[in-house]
Amino acid sequence: MLLTLQDLTVRRGLCPVVEAVSLTVAPGECVGLIGPNGAGKTSLLRGALGLLPATGHSSLAAMTPDARARAAAWLPQAREIAWGISVAHLVRLGRTPHLGRGLDDDGAVTHALGRMGLAQFRDRTATQLSGGEQARALIARALAQEAPLLLADEPIAGLDPAAQIATMRVFARLAEEGGAVIASLHDLGLAARHCTRLIVLSAGRLVADGPPRAVLTPDLLAEVFDIRAHLSDTPDGLVFQPLDTLHHHGGF
Amino acid sequence: MIPEPTPKTLPDQRALTLWLLALVVALFIASLVVGPAGIPPGRGLLALFTGQGGAEVLVMREIRLPRAILGLAIGASLGLAGAAMQGFLRNPLAEPGLIGTSAAAALGAVLAIHTGIYASFALALPLMALAGAGLSVGVILMLAGPRGNALSLILAGIAVSSLAGALTSLVLNLAPNPYAASEIVFWMMGSLADRSLLHVALALPFLALGAALIATTGRGLDALTLGEDAAASLGINLTRLRLKLVLGTAALVGASVAVAGAVGFVGLIAPHLMRRAVGARPSRLLAASALTGAAILLAADIATRVIAPERDLKLGVLTALVGAPFFLHLVRRMAREV
């Protein structure tokens, strides 16, 4: 198992924002973590990594920081690039846990840049790229870490459609190569098409966990997301299209 | 299709370091041979190394050598501390005094002048300044908490700076006589004049300790480019990094203020000058900024002797006079680039 969570609970003050979540993630899985705003997706990922104080057990949080950095890469939602360093140097920061261990750091950087379609950007100043290009460079940074598990918080928000699909393909590919990805997503259509498994959080609790077809039922969409949607199997795979809100909770 | 702009090739890092080193060595020698005594450079250097030449040996060894060493070491310290602080806070406006150490060290020194104990024991002033710096570090770490982030550190620094500044004003306010008051004011302007090898011996261990602590932060500062959360996920122990930074900066700045008074702008300007040349990487900036700081301070100290040898132009006044317009120029250039 690349990740084991047992009764993981994260509190903000007294209020639990993630409550007693248990799950395991095995090699080969591309997991979409879905749920409405404020469901606790970010807190679950950060708690699992040990970046937020949590109770219960997380196999990652139990590791030393060095070992964890080699076991799991983390792509935060905030896309921060503080200095105008080159894209190659930015991506190379992903090698931080490996430096001085005699590994092929340059190869890993080149490979990650290639995967995110940034090969010709390597000498550009990272802060001068567009927002979407910066997001891709930061994903490449996480890929260069070459950890078996990648945790990504809304990695495709703000990317153009081609980059969104390409990024989901990269994640699926990582899983096929024997790694695993857990990505929090709001685009349920892309989640349905590219993930092998969906985990649904609602108000801090894990309410559904399984293959996309089994998870995205009309009842769950109504209960958790307050929407109804069209879902069908096509020759191109699963097609999911949200249609309308249900205003169960009054809407806006 | 719009052609890709040709990538800016970074100047070779080693060449840059060598150029800076050569500049610092040249300025160090210039600092040794320039002075009101009017000793010809060749004779002065000969006297310094061989000890032959009576009064010239005394001038070279007891007056100019400590001054040149302090200019080099303090300039390097301020440049290094500035680069580390900017890297840690991810803010190009950060300067080493931000965590309150310089204000606290100045308060200690001012108290030594006010109480008059430094008249009977010359090292009382730098020692009390060091005590002030040490005290400020304790208060900072207590205020900012063991796990506090960059923001809580800045706020704690502002609180300590304001308090130390207010207390310094109080001491000035209560000065027993105009002489004490003017002495305090002149000391606060910063100077390297009339420092002895004892000052060097007192400051160097702290400067070396501070430099050693900061030198180990390069990898952490680089990782912080991605923010605190990402840096932590890359295996960087942020608590330890922050402790090293606060202690290292305090040792560098505290010892600098203790022997030279407040010399502004070097810690702010030196990292700016070198940032582009090192490709903006915080770890590479440390050494380049230290060398640049040394060059700036040596040059400024030589200038105080050349511009107005009779008037005892204060070093801190000169660095601020030259530094502020230069800083404005940098800000304007930055604003155009954004």
Automatic annotation (TrEMBL), chain A:
MF GO annotations: ATP binding; ATP hydrolysis activity
**What keywords were assigned to this record?**
ATP-binding, Nucleotide-binding, Translocase, Transport
Q: Where is the ABC transporter domain?
A: 3-228
Q: Which Pfam families match?
A: ABC_tran (PF00005)
Oxidoreductase: is it a keyword of this entry? no
Question: What is this protein's function?
Answer: Part of the ABC transporter complex HmuTUV involved in hemin import. Responsible for energy coupling to the transport system.
Q: Which PANTHER family match?
A: HEMIN IMPORT ATP-BINDING PROTEIN HMUV
Q: What is this protein called?
A: ATP-binding cassette domain-containing protein
Question: What does UniProt list as this organism's lineage?
Answer: Bacteria, Pseudomonadati, Pseudomonadota, Alphaproteobacteria, Rhodobacterales
Automatic annotation (TrEMBL), chain B:
What family classification does the UniProt entry report for this protein?
Belongs to the binding-protein-dependent transport system permease family. FecCD subfamily.
Question: Where is the chain membrane-spanning?
Answer: 16-39, 68-85, 97-114, 121-144, 150-175, 196-215, 245-273, 285-307, 313-331
Q: How does it sit in the membrane?
A: Multi-pass membrane protein
What's an example of a GO molecular-function annotation for this chain? Answer: transmembrane transporter activity
One CC-aspect GO term: plasma membrane
Question: Pfam families this protein is in?
Answer: FecCD (PF01032)
- Key words of the record: Cell membrane, Membrane, Transmembrane, Transmembrane helix, Transport
- Per its UniProt entry, which superkingdom is the organism in? Bacteria
Q: Which InterPro entries match?
A: ABC_BtuC-like (IPR037294), ABC_transptr_permease_BtuC (IPR000522)
Q: What is this protein called?
A: Iron chelate uptake ABC transporter family permease subunit
Its lineage opens with: Bacteria, Pseudomonadati, Pseudomonadota, Alphaproteobacteria, Rhodobacterales
- Give start-end of the signal peptide: none
The yes or no answer to whether the keyword Electron transport is present is: no
Q: Where in the cell is it found?
A: Cell membrane
